[in-house]
Amino acid sequence: MSFVHQKKLTLFDIANYTMMTVISFMCVFPFLYVLSVSLTDRSVYVPYAFKLIPDKFSLESYAYILSSNSFLNALKSTVFITIVGTILNLIFTFTMAYGLTEKRLPHRNWIYGTVVFSLVFSAGIIPNFLLVKELGLMNSYWALIIPSLTNAWSLIVVKSFMDSLPHEVIESAKIDGCTDIRVFLKIVIPLSMPAIAAFTLFFAVAHWNTYFNALMFLTDSKKWTLQVLVKSLVLDNSAITAGMESSIGDSSPPSETVRSASVFLAILPILFVYPFLQKHFAKGVMLGSIKG
Amino acid sequence: MKAEPVAHHETTVQTRPRGSRWSDYVKYRHMYLLVIPGFLYFAVFKLVPMWGLLLAFKDYHPVAGFVGSPWVGWKHFTDLFTDDHFYVMLRNTLLINIFALVFFFPLPIFLAVMLNEIRHEAFKRLNQSLVYMPHFLSWVVIASLTFFMLSVDVGLVNKFIRGMGLEPYSFLNDTRLFWGMLTVQSIWKDAGWGTIIFLAAIAGVNPERYEAAVVDGANRFRQIWHVTLPAIRPTIVILLILRLGNMTDVNFEQVLLMMNPLVRSVADVFDTYVYNNGILRGMYSVGVAVGFFKGIVGLALVMASNRVVKRMGHEGIY
Asked: How many beta-carbon contacts under 8 Å exist across A and B?
């Protein structure tokens, strides 16, 4: 847009472009490095050796890790939690947000007040933990879905998005005798597609990345999610004890390349959805102004 | 609390027919169907746990149960305030936040201004894509990447140090580096993402103001100083005040992941304490008391900062 009036590069531009390039490179360097380690063939792998790009590439570490039961189970359960959790997040958030846009709804103020209150005060880790325990959700994947069906921030953002939808369309549909649910399904949802796209991605990323709740609620290591498993593999170096007993010995690739492959696999889905995230998140964030 | 007088007011002044409340319920029955699932969620998962706060005044035993456990009054709180470790956690919380305030907070502003100065849209968008990306990675991934950079056994920096023929250094176990390391991680993850709000404020500037500045002979630095920065000043002030309202909060997953026994004295914060003692060792009542304390202080700070923002004529967080 602004290159109409000034096309010539000044010293300022060169300095700025150089700096931004360095900053951007620093943002991607750590995982380019991890990717590079994960692709190192064992024949050229030397422990403790400084090497940015391996002399010989191999997908062996990925093949190894994807053949281990513990990793596959973690992957499957994380995919399950992400898909089911995201769908339920969308349903609970968008239905409630639309209901809250109706200012004349009796009791609306204190229902909305409860939502806002949960934004600024929470009972804390232990009361929530005890509740999940009392509900019998310990060691169930539902413990990562049900206690986070929606949240105050998303509700407030979606509600403010819906408040900005063309009022006349909704009102005239109501005058024509449409019930509120019909208006919601036939008018509000189609008009909310940008917000739905943004929040699908936000919710999915949040579920995929959940660590602490998984650590707290899934005490059985057979039920671990991907993040908990990756933490254990990389930070505690427990690759062998984490259920990969099947292939101890000479057949397993170096632990460093396996560990880096596990990190990269945990990033990969995010990289896949990132172009879509890119397109929609700015809208999503702008909707909620400063709350993000 | 305010609902009562308002309802009263409505019924007396507007002289509605009797049973209007009931007819409202009928009229909005579909709206209620939409609201109720979400509301039940908030009632069960946000309001019911408030009962658990009473455990802070009891000596909870799983065998005795919630009702059977004896009341102990303020014991857990007085124990807490007389424990030296409480002041260690308080110091760690405040210092991690002060580090963030001093080193992290200005960076998104600087980055946004510099991104705004990029004249080639495609290059600008590429840079934005790359600096936003780390925001979407989990703390586990970020801790793992840190490990692949700094640890003794696989860290790239130590591989380099070894290559130079020097002894490797355990950066991750050094108490002097811990807060700085957390700050660098946070910057890497979120400084780029933090630019969005400032870029939006900058996008609202009328281009004529830049043109006028150019006509007046302003170079790029003076354009930034006299046009861009004044445009984002309100945003900076609001975010700063709201940030001050979050001084009791740290990125709990981040601290939990980077913590190890050697750096515990600088890493332990209220939430890690609650997890380690409450959840792992079953000292529920102590954990609830610590969480309650943190929650109340946090609530007071958030309310105060929100009030200040609203006083200034801006929209607060609620």
From this structure: 292
With vertex at residue A260, the alpha carbon angle to CA A257 and CA A265, rounded to the nearest 5 degrees, is 120
Which of A271, A225, A263, A267 is CA-nearest to residue A79? A225
**CB distance A278–B295 less than 8 Å?**
no
Nearest to B49 among A27, A92, A131 (CB): A131
Range of the structural domain that residue A120 is part of: 61-292
Residue A39 corresponds to which amino acid?
A: L
d(CA A264, nearest CA chain B) in Å = 8
Helix (H) or strand (E) holding B124: helix B121-132
- Model confidence band, residue A128 (pLDDT cutoffs 50, 70, 90): very high
Rounded to two decimals, what is the model's pTM?
0.90
Write out residues 73-112 of B within 8 Å (CB-CB) of A: 111
CATH number at residue B145: 1.10.3720.10
Cα atoms found within 13 Å of the Cα of residue A89, Cβ hemisphere only = 29
Q: How far B97 CA sits from the closest chain A CA (Å)?
A: 18
**pLDDT tens track for B145-177:** 999 999 998 999 999 999 999 999 999 999 999
One domain, residues B150 and B11: no
Question: What's the CA gap between B225 and A186, in Å, rounded?
Answer: 49
CB contact set of A29 (below 8 Å; sequence gap of 6+):
none
Q: Minimal Cα–Cα distance from A70 to chain B, Å?
A: 18
Would an 8 Å CB–CB cutoff place B132 in contact with chain A?
A: yes
| pLDDT at residue B130 tops 60 | yes
- Determine, yes or no, domain membership for B63: no
Can you tell me the ipTM of this complex? 0.90
Structural domain range at position B156? 75-311
Task: Reduce the secondary structure of A225-281 to three states and give it as a string.
Answer: CHHHHHHHHHCCCCCCCCCCHHHCCCCCCCHHHHHHHHHHHHHHHHHHHHHHHHHHH
Statement to judge: residues B115 and B52 lie in one domain: no
B234 touches chain A (CB under 8 A): no
CB contact under 8 A, A285 and B196: yes
Residues B239 and B198: their CA atoms lie apart, in Å, by 10
Whether B318 is in a domain gets the answer no
Say if CB A266 and CB B140 are below 8 A apart.
yes
Tell me if chain A has a CB within 8 Å of the CB of B38.
yes
